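Example A, followed by Example B.
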Amino acid sequence: MWVRHIFAILICVAAMLTKPGLSQAIDFYEIQIYDTNTAPVGHLTLELHSNTTSTATGKLAKSQSDVYQIHETVEGTYGVIRWLEIGQYFDTAKLSNGNYEYTGSRTKVHFGIPQTFEWPVQFGGNIEFDYVRRAAEQNPLTLELRPIVGGSYKGFRLVGNFAFVDPFSGPGAHRGFQFNPSGELVYKLNGWLSPAVEYYGDMGSIQPLAKVQEQQHFIVPALNFDFLPQLELNLGVGIGLTRASNAVFLKSIVGWTF
C-alpha cells in the first residue's frame, strides 16, 4: 500500500516537470544524504552542519557556489514513531559582505516505508519546506520532495536521494520542479570508521535539461566516524566536475542523540 502511494506521488511530480528552468545551486546549508532510517523513538538528535566553499574558478562557478561564505546550520530531529521523524533547521551564515547573520529556517518530515525494511532494497522519503531570507537566497520559499532508495550488501551501503525542488517565489518560481539528485556509497571498514563517496548534483528542470556544463555535479570523498553510539561525525571534501561547479567545498556534520 505504501509503495503504491509513493509511486503515485512520483508520477504526479513527473507530470509537473514540464516547464524549463536553469540550474540553481546545491544547498550549501545542508550537504547531507538521507537514508531510510530515522531518529530513535522519543529521542532528540542535534546536528551542526558546517560548510564553506574554499575555492571556485570561473565566473559561472563563482556565481553558483557562494564563494568564501561560511554556512552553519543547527538541526533538531525528533523520532515520533519507528519509521517517522520530524525536524527543524536554523540556518546562519557569514555572507560575502562579511556579516554573520541568521538566514532562515526549514521544516522537514522524514520517513521510511516499514513494509520495505526487510526487503533487499528499502524505500523512504523526505518532505521539506524552506523559508530563507532574501539577503541569503534568491528563492526564499521552497518545497522539496525527496524519494529515498537504499540497499546493503555485506559491508557496503548504497543510498540514492532524488530531490525535486520547487521555488514558490523569486527568479526560480513558475519554472517547474528542479531535479537535485544525490547519493552515497558507504563501506563499514571497522567498528569506528566508515569511508564513503558522496555525490551531489543540480540538473535544473528536466524538460529541457540545462547543458551539462551549466549543471552542478560534485564528488565528495568522506569519512564517517563511529566512536560512540550517540555520536555522529562526518567530514568531507567536495570536488566540482563541471564549469558551473568548478569549485572545492569543505563539509562537516557533528551530531549527538539524547
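Example B, a separate protein, is given below in the same form.
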Amino acid sequence: MHIEPALLGPVSLFLGALVGGSASLLGAIYSQRCQGRVQHVASEIAKRETVYADFVMSASSLLLNAYTRDEISLSGDEQRLIGLINRMRLFAPPDVVEGAEAVLTGIVEILLQPSIELRQLAKEALSKSIEDPVLAFSSICGGELNNLRRRVALTGGVPN
C-alpha cells in the first residue's frame, strides 16, 4: 500500500485533532457527571441535616413540656414530630428511625408521669439524674451523617 507523502501531513493532523478533541469531550462529560453526583449527594446530606435538626428542635420542646406539664394533648408539635419520623422513613437508615421512635416513646412515657417544677428539672438535669432521649438520637444522626460524608470522600462523590 502506497500513501501519498503530500496527504500524510493533513491526515495525521486530522487524526490527531480527532483523538485530542474526543479525549477532551470525554473528560468534560466525565467531570460533569461526577460534579452532578457530588451536588446530588451534597443536597441529600443537607436534606437529612435539616430534617434531623427540625426533629431535635421539636422533640426538645416537647420533652421540656412533658416534664413540666400534666396535661396530655395532641397539638401541632406532636403531629409535627410524628410527621418528621415518617419523613425520615423515606431516606434514613433503620437505626436513625429507631432512635427517633425511641425519642417519641420517651416523651410519651414522661407525659404519663406527674409533672415536676422547672427548678427541680434543672437540678436533675445538672446532676445528670434524668435521661435525655434526644441526646442519644443526636449522636446517632451525627454518626450517620459523618459516615455518609466519609463514604462520599472515599469514593470521590459516589455514595455506596
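On Example B: The chain has a mean pLDDT of 83.
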